[in-house]
Specification:
Blueprint: H1 2-11, H2 18-24, H3 29-35, H4 39-59, H5 67-84, H6 86-93, H7 104-110, H8 117-130, H9 141-162, H10 173-188
Helix pairs in contact: 1-6, 2-3, 5-6, 5-8, 5-9, 5-10, 8-9, 9-10
Length: 205
């Protein structure tokens, strides 16, 4: 799978054959077919493993009770995953595969926060909405989640493709990560979010 990932990224999914992958790892094409019946089954298994690894990387954040803090830590963990596994991330989120749609098993995982990092994010956003933590005009969990995802994807993808660009003098990745996550949350979360209001004098609650 590692060899296939490298070839798909370098030459494009459509241009790479199973024979080409076999040659790269010095196997016979027949040996490859023992494990995967075709190229589509290979890429599906790669995606299953890679997306499962991402879900595992963020799953321990479920113990964070505050949904906004959970979202903040999720953004940080997402970028960390991307920069630690850049080839995996490129294939997962920066590559198009023609003619490959979701299977029944993919659909089943789609809404499971334990197996799907996006479902994990949606769950946290819905908890934040239910608690009144987001600005009152923001009512769509999908919209909020997709804006959050877009922000962290921007940091991750730019770092992957431009981190060593001599034209740019990048600030440290940790600073960019924290500022991006905090800035986008400040724009989405109510100003009084998470603050407890003291009861007025002379009144009981």
């Amino acid at each position: 799978m590692d060899a296939a990932r490298q070839l798909f990224l370098r030459e494009g999914y459509d241009a790479v054959s199973m024979r080409r992958i076999a040659d790269a790892i010095e196997y016979s094409p027949t040996a490859i077919y023992v494990y995967f019946k075709d190229k589509e089954s290979l890429i599906r298994e790669m995606c299953r493993v890679d997306f499962g690894n991402l879900a595992g990387a963020v799953g321990n954040l479920a113990k964070i009770a505050d949904p906004i803090e959970r979202i903040r830590q999720l953004g940080v963990a997402y970028i960390r995953f991307a920069v630690q596994k850049p080839n995996h991330y490129r294939l997962m989120f920066m590559t198009t595969f023609s003619g490959i749609g979701p299977t029944a098993a993919d659909i089943e995982r789609k809404n499971n926060p334990d197996q799907d990092a996006y479902a994990f994010l949606i769950q946290a956003v819905r908890e934040g909405l239910a608690a009144g933590r987001f600005r009152p005009e923001l009512t769509s969990a999908e919209l909020i989640a997709q804006v959050l995802w877009s922000a962290v994807h921007g940091v991750a993808s730019l770092h992957i493709v431009k981190a060593n660009d001599p034209w740019l003098e990048w600030a440290p990745l940790e600073q960019r990560t924290n500022l991006a996550v905090d800035a986008i949350l400040r724009g989405l979360v109510r100003e009084d979010s998470g603050k407890k209001t003291a009861p007025a004098k002379g009144k009981k609650r």
